[in-house]
Design a protein that fits this description.
about 350 residues, mainly alpha, two-stranded antiparallel ribbon, 6 strands, about 5% strand
């Protein structure tokens, strides 16, 4: 797509709070943006390495709980030893949650990528269920089903400059927008680097990629670490925005929502999760004005099925195809570049053993 489109889209979304006065719709955009961020992280695994993770919500929840607990402080006994943590600034808690989720991505990647297909899916689902049960039953730490209330909102700044607390929806909207833009740039740099070409090569033909020297474990684990960290960041933003979390954050529906956003928007594209997140984040809100709650979810499901049947590759790839039909030379160049990922790696010699 046009290289200036992301910049135009960023300017447009930055102007939304200036004319959108309805706080409910602004709240919906904030939550949709957080799930866009989570879907972008899943897209790195599903879209660029071809690995379907149905336990991705575990990283989202880990980021939320770690950020919330470090911001609130806690006092817990582990193996007979008392551990007390004073409340940290929320932004540091957010970073720690992101790092913890990335570390979990590394550990799960090292273990889970030894298997493929349905076995990998089962491992990821099992991991998410284990984390959910820990959050539900470790009552001394997580408060269990009673939830963690009173999570402080995000604060920005330093001790010598003073802190700004993000109480309003507009402030949180801009923070989420900035993180989406940063994640977009990170994903773009990654997938266009030799590391990203190696991931795409593994997705297209793993056997051929290995034959030219691509290390399967190395690149898949890298994708899992980055994906887990970004999902943890999204979870931390969710916790500090909603200001209360419970083990329901790990429910399977949240993972399904991320998968729907990625597939309908267009897996393996940078803009796909953004487009999918806008459609499926805002569709229930607009349907609410015209139909009852029961019909809303029926129409929601029909919309998803319709998009998958009419646009099996997703919305963004189809839009790109329309653009390329008007510019046949660019279309041929793009097809040639995408179809030769493995050969390009072999020629450049950048794939590491």
């Amino acid at each position: 797509m046009n290289r200036y489109f992301p910049l135009v889209a960023l300017v447009f979304f930055a102007a939304v709070p200036l004319w959108l006065q309805d706080q409910y719709y602004l709240h919906t955009l904030v939550v949709a943006g957080i799930f866009m961020l989570a879907a972008m992280s899943l897209n790195l695994l599903l879209g660029y390495t071809g690995q379907l993770s149905l336990g991705h919500v575990a990283f989202f929840g880990i980021g939320a709980y770690v950020s919330a607990l470090t911001s609130l402080g806690f006092d817990v006994t582990v193996f007979g030893r008392q551990i007390s943590v004073e409340p940290w600034p929320p932004f540091l808690g957010l970073l720690l949650g992101m790092a913890t989720a990335g570390l979990c991505g590394y550990l799960i990647g090292k273990l889970a990528f030894r298997v493929r297909g349905a076995y990998f899916v089962i491992v990821t689902i099992s991991f998410a269920e284990v984390v959910r049960l820990v959050a539900l039953n470790w009552v001394d730490l997580t408060n269990g089903p009673l939830a963690l209330p009173g999570i402080p909102p995000l604060t920005l700044g330093f001790e010598w400059t003073g802190y700004v607390t993000l109480w309003g929806k507009a402030e949180n909207y801009y923070v989420v927008l900035v993180f989406i833009a940063l994640a977009y740039l990170l994903m773009k740099r990654l997938v266009q680097s030799p590391y990203g070409r190696a991931m795409i090569a593994l997705r297209e033909n793993e056997t051929l990629a290995v034959s030219v020297g691509v290390s399967v474990t190395k690149y898949l684990v890298l994708a899992a670490v980055v994906s887990g960290a970004v999902a943890g960041l999204a979870g931390g933003l969710y916790a500090h925005y909603i200001q209360i979390i419970d083990p329901m954050i790990f429910m399977f529906l949240n993972t399904v929502t991320m998968v729907i956003i990625v597939i309908t928007g267009g897996k393996g594209t940078l803009a796909g999760p953004v487009v999918g997140g806008l459609i499926f984040g805002l569709a229930p809100v607009f349907l609410r004005n015209y139909v009852g709650p029961e019909v809303q979810w029926i129409l929601y499901g029909c919309l998803m099925i319709l998009i998958v049947f009419i646009l099996p590759q997703g919305i963004v790839p189809e839009i790109e195809r329309w653009f390329n039909r008007a510019k046949p030379d660019r279309r041929n160049d793009a097809a040639g570049q995408e179809g030769s990922s493995v050969l390009a790696l072999a020629r450049s010699g950048r794939a590491n053993h």
